Task: structure prediction
Amino acid sequence: MKKVLRTGAALCLSAAALTAVAASAYAEAIDFEDGNYSFVSVKTDDGGDLSVLSVEEFNGSMQLKVDVQDCSLLPKILFSMNDIVGTENLSNVDKIYMDITFASKDGVTAPGWIGGCLGTSGADDTPAWDQTDFEGGEYENPVSEPMTIERKFLLPSKKFVSGTEGSNAQLMRWGTEVPYYMYVDNIRILDADGNEMPLIISAAPAEEAVEEAPAEATAETPASDGNTTSSKTGNTAAASVAAIAVCAAGLAVISRRK
Result:
């Protein structure tokens, strides 16, 4: 019986460890859980779409929602690196990652072929515009699989320059025939050593914060559409907590039967 109890306790500790890992994953990622997107804007010149920004729950977590108004145009979404890492730290930025997902507005039609770019530039061409293209392929379901895109700086001359205002990362998707929403999550900024850079953005001001669900509403995980992945740390943490509860209940039963 003691051996059984020891084994059960070990399993519970393992579940607790998984919860800790899930909670600490991407410690310096922008996950939009606080509702803040004050560092994001829309560029509308040169064929840019008049996209509408908000933060909404999608695939089990809060994400930046880009409501594209004209799918034949390019949504040009700017992320202010000055606001994210600080103007004095721009030169330390070596890579930018973010997760993106696409969903057709009618919930039936597939979003089609997905391609675009993640580019960067600074004021007065310091640095000049440069981009890393991405391609997600053709999707048959109304919601695409989440994909992680990366901005790589292949040349030192293309990197951000500390002290330069107007330094932005810009996300774009090429034009399509299917009206769609674009979702962005888990933005990470890495230095040359592969370490996540500290973020200086703060919680959303009260007037910009996303309204919370009514207290009486029951928090439920959305039904799987075949695209939700374990990379969503919120779902992973919830599952780990549930596993701990099951372990604890099992140990209590074993103790009573002893």
The longest helix spans residues 233-257. The chain has one domain: 27-230. Confidence is low (pLDDT under 50) at residues 1-24, 206-258.
